[in-house]
Design brief:
Number of helices: 13
Number of strands: 20
Distance between the termini: 52 Å
Low-confidence stretches: 1-28
Helix content: 25-40%
Radius of gyration: 24 Å
Mean pLDDT: 91
Shape: globular
């Protein structure tokens, strides 16, 4: 019996290894790379994407009139240049000539106007913008065959960051299944829960990518990541935990850089007892960010004290980190004053495919025990998290990372009372007034001051428990180079190459 059991176990292990290897091909030449990603794509239509994890993949397929560089600057893409009037209400773009779509058609001014009208909800039959950032767009005009002018209803001197919105062919209605853009890579196939495949676009207007074929392999089971890397079915994986990184030093280089996300224990401000500001402040005082960074991220990561990331150097208020000091006794007193001397229970809903967020939640559970608060972890799949937590707001707390475009206002606008993506249900009229003033200001000094005030307000209201901008630990197979860190959430495959 024992012999049969042992053989059965060995058979199951071997079968599992073969199955894992079958989930992704090894690169057969230096012309192919497989990248592991943590979540399924929520849409292939670039104007309908919600998830940061989808945007980081589609960055390679679609381009806007401008696109960001790894240093955070906006450079021309489908447009070769642009100007902004002093009031921040008119953005004029000179189109790059000869840019082609992946279907072989040349991009025209009509295509650009169509794309921007579609994003702004101005096409016939549309009732609302597909891209919320375009609510402020008044008119989109074709000045001539190579010039487009976009006029805003009210000033927004940061709007250039939103002109990364994808330019797509006019009246093409199959983006959801067969996306067509202008990026350095073109779409090949998408298998939900499995893979997204793309290949080099040889008619790309800019510098051609080094790698011909790229597969993004969806790995929702975090426990299988290291095995897949060691088996050679994944060449690059950008979301390692510290423990995983320690297991991969032989055949992989571990690249370290900022993730440019706000990682927090996000709190639903409408749920009792989290609707009590003293309860939220107590949780902030019970959270030890250094312990989380050391235990989960191996000491890498930047502590934050509000919903802002250090990459926005000019607008980042570092002093928010000092508003709540780790103080167990102080947290207990706040709970007692709030009417919870014996603590309370609540549930932290976490997307189970994000190992680092799950591990962070585990540490938080232990930290909160010290003040008599019982937190229970509920792991859900990514689609459930999007529907129940992010869109449905049916949750108490969650650990996740939130990204933003390269505009300080994009970090703040979700916390306006009216914002459709204000998933923590934060409501403060003073905050809304500050945001409305900042977004139209043409004075840089005034904008800095206003954004500092908003960060302070979110922190002092304990809108959530802000932890860090996590470090991104990236496994890159030895022999591959060129991975770049951006000040936003993207995976740029155009710079990757074999040595």
């Amino acid at each position: 019996m024992k012999k049969r059991t042992l053989l059965s176990c060995m058979f199951l292990i071997v079968t599992a290894l073969f199955a894992l290897a079958g989930c992704g091909k090894k690169a057969s030449s230096t012309d192919a790379v497989v990248v592991g990603i943590q979540q399924d794509l929520d849409s292939l239509d670039p104007h309908k994407v919600e998830a940061a994890g989808t945007r980081e993949v589609l960055f390679n397929v679609f381009e806007g009139l401008v696109k960001p560089t790894s240093s955070g600057e906006m450079k021309g893409a489908v447009a070769e240049s642009y100007t902004v009037n002093d009031a921040g209400t008119e953005y004029t773009f000179v189109l790059r000539q000869g840019v082609k779509f992946h279907n072989g058609q040349t991009v025209t001014a009509e295509d650009v106007k169509y794309s921007l009208d579609r994003a702004a909800g101005k096409l016939s039959g549309m009732e609302a913008p597909l891209v919320s950032d375009f609510k402020n767009v008044d008119t989109i005009e074709i000045v001539d065959e190579k010039t487009i002018k976009l006029t805003l209803s009210s000033p927004n001197t940061e709007f250039i960051a939103f002109m990364t919105v994808a330019i797509i062919p006019k009246d093409y209605n199959d983006q959801a299944k067969n996306p067509v853009g202008t990026g350095p890579y073109k779409f090949v196939s998408f298998t939900p829960q499995d893979s997204f495949v793309m290949t080099r676009f040889d008619d790309y207007w800019g510098e051609k990518p080094h790698i011909k074929d790229v597969t993004f392999r969806i790995v929702t089971n975090a426990d299988s990541v290291v095995m897949a890397l060691k088996a050679g079915t994944i060449d690059i994986y950008p979301y390692l935990t510290h423990q995983q990184a320690k297991e991969l030093t032989k055949d992989f280089n571990i690249e370290v850089g900022p993730t440019n996300l706000v990682q927090a224990l996000f709190l639903n401000n409408d749920k009792e007892p989290l609707n009590n500001v003293d309860v939220r402040r107590a949780l902030n005082m019970a959270m030890n960010p250094k312990e989380i960074i050391d235990m989960v991220f191996g000491g890498y990561g930047n502590e934050i004290g509000s919903h802002f990331i250090p990459a926005f150097k000019l607008y980042y208020d570092e002093t928010t980190k000092d508003i709540y000091k780790y103080d167990v006794d102080g947290a207990k007193k706040l709970l007692a004053d709030a009417g919870y001397p014996n603590g309370f229970e609540f549930v932290i809903t976490v997307p189970g495919n994000y190992e680092a967020h799950c591990d962070t939640a585990e540490v938080l559970v232990e930290q909160f025990k010290k003040i008599g608060v019982t937190a229970k972890i509920k792991k859900v799949d990514w689609s459930t998290w999007l529907s129940d937590v992010y869109n449905g707001r049916n949750y108490e707390a969650t650990v996740v990372g939130v990204d933003a475009k390269l505009a300080p206002g994009d970090l703040m606008k979700r916390f306006r009372a009216e914002a459709s993506n204000n998933f923590i249900n934060y409501k403060n009229p003073e905050f809304d007034a500050l945001y409305n003033k900042a977004i139209v200001s043409t004075s840089q000094n005034e904008k800095v001051e206003l954004y500092h005030q908003m960060q302070q307000m979110l922190a002092k209201d304990a809108a959530s428990v802000y932890i860090q901008d996590p470090a991104k630990l990236v496994a890159v197979k030895k022999g591959i180079e060129g991975f770049l860190f951006y000040p936003l959430y993207v995976i740029d495959m155009s710079t990757i190459q074999y040595k």
